[in-house]
UniProtKB/TrEMBL annotation, chains A, B:
It catalyses: alpha-D-glucose 6-phosphate = beta-D-fructose 6-phosphate. It comes from the Archaea. The gene is pgi. GO terms for cellular component: cytoplasm. Keywords: Cytoplasm, Gluconeogenesis, Glycolysis, Isomerase. SUPFAM superfamilies: SIS domain. Belongs to the GPI family. It comes from Halomarina halobia. InterPro entries: G6P_Isomerase, Phosphoglucose_isomerase_CS, SIS_dom, SIS_dom_sf, SIS_PGI_1, SIS_PGI_2. One of its GO terms (biological process) is gluconeogenesis. The keyword Cytoplasm applies. The lineage of its organism: Archaea, Methanobacteriati, Methanobacteriota, Stenosarchaea group, Halobacteria. This is Probable glucose-6-phosphate isomerase. The keyword Flavoprotein does not apply. CDD domains: SIS_PGI_1, SIS_PGI_2.
Amino acid sequence: MHLDIGNALAGIARPGVSRDSLDRLDDCVARAHERIERGVEEREFGYAALALPETTAAAEIERAVAPLADSEAVLTVGIGGSALGAATVSAALGRGDADAYVLDNVDPRRANELLAALPLSETAVHVVSRSGTTAETLANFLVVREAMADAGVDWTERTVVTTGEDGPLRALADEHGLPALDVPEGVPGRFSVLSSVGLVPAAIQGHDLDGLLAGGRAGMDALAPSLYECPAYGYGAACHALEVRGATTNVLMPYAERLEYFAEWFAQLWAESLGKDGLGQTPVRALGATDQHSQLQLYRAGRRDKHVTLVRPRERPERAIPETGIEGLSYLGGSDLGTLLDAEFEATEASLAAAGLPNVRIEIDALDAESLGRLLYDAEAACVLAGELMGVSTFTQPAVEWGKRAARGLLGGGDFEEAEAVAGKERLVIE
Amino acid sequence: MHLDIGNALAGIARPGVSRDSLDRLDDCVARAHERIERGVEEREFGYAALALPETTAAAEIERAVAPLADSEAVLTVGIGGSALGAATVSAALGRGDADAYVLDNVDPRRANELLAALPLSETAVHVVSRSGTTAETLANFLVVREAMADAGVDWTERTVVTTGEDGPLRALADEHGLPALDVPEGVPGRFSVLSSVGLVPAAIQGHDLDGLLAGGRAGMDALAPSLYECPAYGYGAACHALEVRGATTNVLMPYAERLEYFAEWFAQLWAESLGKDGLGQTPVRALGATDQHSQLQLYRAGRRDKHVTLVRPRERPERAIPETGIEGLSYLGGSDLGTLLDAEFEATEASLAAAGLPNVRIEIDALDAESLGRLLYDAEAACVLAGELMGVSTFTQPAVEWGKRAARGLLGGGDFEEAEAVAGKERLVIE
């Protein structure tokens, strides 16, 4: 991963961080690195995620999905950290040998449409839930299983499960002899992309799991006790420094359609890990060049409470723009869509700097397995570092429990006082 | 549109707005309404958008696309306001008689994949650019035109154009006798969804344009000089009141997959219209229930700088969750995915209120043409009102010009000093 934080410096941007401040922050980075290194070595809760490139066994995943290797489609049934990693990898690396779909919502319209469109007898289903009780995931799985049965497909031959040591999904896998993989110990869902949670669909698609893990390992090897020597820490430290100086929003703007899901994945990683104690940058998902025509006005002329992270691959496939005699367009003809997109990238970066808005450039060599594995790992390491610098509980998500209990209560799944609060809603209706 | 701002009140939320403050603000709303009404009547620049339900001729659009009515697919070639409206309508109303695609980026990989997958001889192409010179749109059009020619398809028989009175696209339409529609006078792109700009693909898909415009007209008829009597103004006033009290981020979170693009469209409307003079809420696109497992931790436990706008249709199709004997899941069996989704909606709304985070509920009757037209119109009217209350130049987007000139200069399209700034970038590289 190649990082350039020049446009986040105090001389360029407001808020911005001076080189002196970065030097001082680097002492904290060194100490945080020691803490992270110890956590990784001892496989402590959360930190264990940064060991996945070494602990994940690609061969085991490939063996588990071997019976499904001829599938035309692979459907991930999960939600949040149990779905976004897989979706990110599949979107970034392309179709491969199978189309990838995700059922990560409980919208009946979407379920009906997707199940009507899928070639069920040729579809592999990957059900992911650590507890085996996640309401959305299990409801969707029950629906998918029934649709397969209705279509005369033996769902037990088309399903692979990734779950914890016990719980309903584990019991189901045991009962029906389904291939079952483990959610790795001590790894929160949003940090689990480089495990079976994120890699099963990629394996069915025939993508290069070893390459993904090698990229992750390169990120692991690059961790160092200085933000100047480690792009992951450089990014995490820059985000932290900008946040405490007022950039409370972090816009992640990849210039590659295949990285649109990466921005979603990053948004979960950042929001759920760092959104605590009244702190945490709000991640905003954008896409270049498209959002130049939608969001750039706000970034340049709105509040000084943001920084933009621009991401691009250094290599792109070719697509020539045909020569044209149309008046005023001849400068486009003979160029290439990739050249145009890169010009837009550089123009937008410069336009943000010209407006004094801090921005950061991340580049990867190409949209391949190894570069992607590195990008994912480095984003996780950046997040862990930012959490250390802020002193928050990076690996938990206590604030989401309230709503889960309320929903369960509303559905008759037990007595929960949170469900009673729903009925007491204050109303001011205008219609 | 049904609006409930009870959870934005000061007793519930921080920031929150008291009923007294709303009463005082209502005087400003009454004055702003007069200004808006005059602008609409006189078809002033920008305000003319709020007259579209009366000025758009559905029959003219349907006549223009009649030769393409048997298309299997419709491809919008545009960007920003020339693409998002069409994409929003097509996504919300579903496939109809043709699959809808958008080419609104210049990623060569995406263009290559899409053009390889499209049935070109059965694809209608809608090219949209007011000036007829938008670099991304014209580059994509040149690429699509060539792909059709290479496939032996007569592109002149498959293309419809929406553009301004003159410019390269108008000239091209004249030269080749293409059906050509007008971008409506005085209507910025992001406010143009209820015109040919947004409705051509829907017409080819066989959707109910009259219903969409009737919904818009209902919104127009509902404009009134009080926030308590007009849900559009109620929403715009609530957002304004929350913004000046500290909610500088507006999370739009529909609970319906088909409204995911609506959140994109809204984000452009809000950011480009109100992001001025160091003001303007940052729109954040979310999706319920999925993002409960991604963003909710931040919303409930992060900075008090946000409010959440929850959106849902009151009707959903059915999809029963099968009964199950699996331990711990019996409460789900026999329910319906829609019931589950609505329970999650209400639980999340209550969980935000319990954490003191302001939130607003918007409901539409159903995902049909009339309700959608009303929703789009009301969002625009809310935005115009918020702009009046803030005193910004709602209908312009001056801050995006810098980058356009820089990109054009980089591509050899003329001498622009902005292009020189790109080469002078400050660097601090870490790799």
